[in-house]
Amino acid sequence: MRIDIITVLPELLESPFNHSIMKRAQEKNLLTVKCHNLRDYSTFNQKQVDDYQYGGGAGMVMMIDPILNCIEALKAERVYDEVIYLTPDGELFEQKMANRLSLYNNLILLCGHYKGIDERVREHLITKEISIGSFVLSGGELAAAVVVDAIGRLLPGVLNNETSALEDSFQDDLLAPPVYTRPANYKGWEVPKILLSGHEAKIKEWRTQKALERTKERRPDLFEKGN
Known about the structure:
This protein has helices spanning 20-27, 64-75, 95-101, 119-124, 141-152, 200-218, 220-226; strands at 2-7, 32-37, 50-52, 60-62, 82-92, 106-111, 128-131, 185-186, 189-190. Helix 6 (200-218) packs across helix 7. The strands form 3 sheets. A 5-stranded parallel β-sheet has the order 2-1-6-5-7. Strands 3-4 form a two-stranded antiparallel sheet. Strands 8-9 form a two-stranded antiparallel sheet. The chain folds into 2 domains: 2-152, Alpha/beta knot, CATH 3.40.1280.10; 169-226, tRNA(m1g37)methyltransferase, domain 2 (Trp Operon Repressor, Chain A). The protein has 227 residues and is α/β, with parallel strands linked by helices. Helices cover 31% and strands 19% of the residues.
């Protein structure tokens, strides 16, 4: 899978993709992440990518021309399944969307900045808009890192245990159950005995029940959706 990220601050994205699981995914050639500096596609001598908004108002707006130039350059090299804009008013990014996007081959992520992008970019170039939550960030880079991480870890071969991602929270509209590790008794705090029993069927039943209880308590919206 290949993900191309268009940004005015590519240095913000150096660390998230150069460590841990995302680093291993790229080393295994299972995932390719490329960041493109939007200023490289500006036709202005000063590499300008933003301008004042028509009608007045505070905040600059990202211009069409450099965005179009970058997207066209990328599309000249390969076919993209989606051109995604990270924006607070996009569709809420959830696990099921991550699952769907992980099945694609090529994605473009456009990181917004300033007051946003010229609306005509959204109307004519963007195929999908994503929000990671009901809040505003200084730019779309952190949102892009979240989306890439959520997608990348689902790719076959990325995680050492491929069933691990299937047991994550939200995969079945449930939160994950509690987990424990050694020691079994720490200062009187004990691991539930069922987990020490070795009885796989009963352990699975316990985990399912705990997942239901936790979801009902902490995310009743999810619980109602799944019941």
